[in-house]
Amino acid sequence: MSEYKTLSHQGLWKNNAALVQLLGLCPLLAVTGTLINGLGLGLATTLVLIGSNTTVSLVRNWVPNEIRIPIFVMIIAAFVTIVQLLMNAFTFNLYQSLGIFIPLIVTNCAIIGRAEAYASKNPIKFAAFDGLMMGIGFSMVLILLGAMRELLGYGTLFVGAEFLLGDWARSLLITVFQTEHNFLLAILPPGAFIGMGLLIALKNTLDKRFQELARAPEKVVERARVTAEN
Amino acid sequence: MTKSMQKNGLILAAFALVTTGLIAITDVFTSPVIQQQQRNELQKTLNSIIPPDWHDNDLEHDCTRVIAPELLGNAEEKTVYRARLNGQPQALAIETMTPNGYSGDISLIVGVDIAGNVSGVRVLQHRETPGLGDKIERRISDWILSFNGKSLTQENHKNWAVRKDGGDFDQFTGATITPRAVVNAVKNTLEFVAGRQEALFLADNQCGPQSMSESEHE
Question: What ipTM did this prediction achieve?
């Protein structure tokens, strides 16, 4: 497998930051009340991941081993602050609804984890790609969880899309069912934990299924050989 | 040993300089946009509680600041925006807050016309339960509009409460504390305005073009 293919597989599935490494759970669980909030935080995290991975990889030969962690922290903090300022300036409403969770990206261990584990040892193009894939993997979980909770809780999808994408996006709003009483469990934090648990369970089941599928043809070959030896 | 410490210290300092520099540059470019956004937001809110055709002055540039811990929620300074038509007082928009929300503070802005009627109320900030208490937000429900046109008199004091407490205002299914807090905050604001209107309109302007820059850096 080429490096890019490995990185995609690792970031999106096998080593998914949210589902497997269970990193960055605080913003993940807190923000995913709606699909758009999830998407917004996902985009911001992906931007920071790409930026920090690229920069860390760029300077990796100049950073002495003993002080690499404070330097990574500075780089990440700077990127988060810049993303925060940009969001505040250009996506004001979304910034208001994501509120305190943007600064919290700093504490998202997925980011320093990737800087330390991958970006500091690999060339820029791979590091940036790794950031992109890890970010997309993380965002997918945010979006999925946000969609699940919004659908169950409010009976809609894409509520608030205009805050992220501009006024045209108002038409994206899908009302699946209308309810006077929202399903609170889905909207409140426990719903996030339960939803997250279900997603992890689903991934593990799928992994098992894939494994069995991959093993099945081998078995046939084995049996054939056994009979042949007899 | 000292040599490597020196070297590492310098490298750290260099990184700190570069990262801070990048943030400073971004800040320079984004801060006018952010200020503009905040101003638009304020303008939008003010326009939604005081009809634009009631006044010909620039609301956000005509204000006074007051402190009234008993009636406006806490001891912090609150801004009162003043609407005038041809120089004549028309309405006030008073910032207020209540600490009695279900999960912490709720900050509000209340528009009151010269006759003492509520012209509009909006929630500026809250942390109420999504799906229950957040119906006080205009974008989620119409409830906040039920204040429009109401006034506070000697006789109707006890109507300023949620229905559960014998008043005029709907509570939400499963959430009484939030609307109760908001109703009380609006009632207190009206009490604050009563008898003070003239003084509030006469007070020095603290949002004029000169003091603008100062207030924005708060």
Answer: 0.70
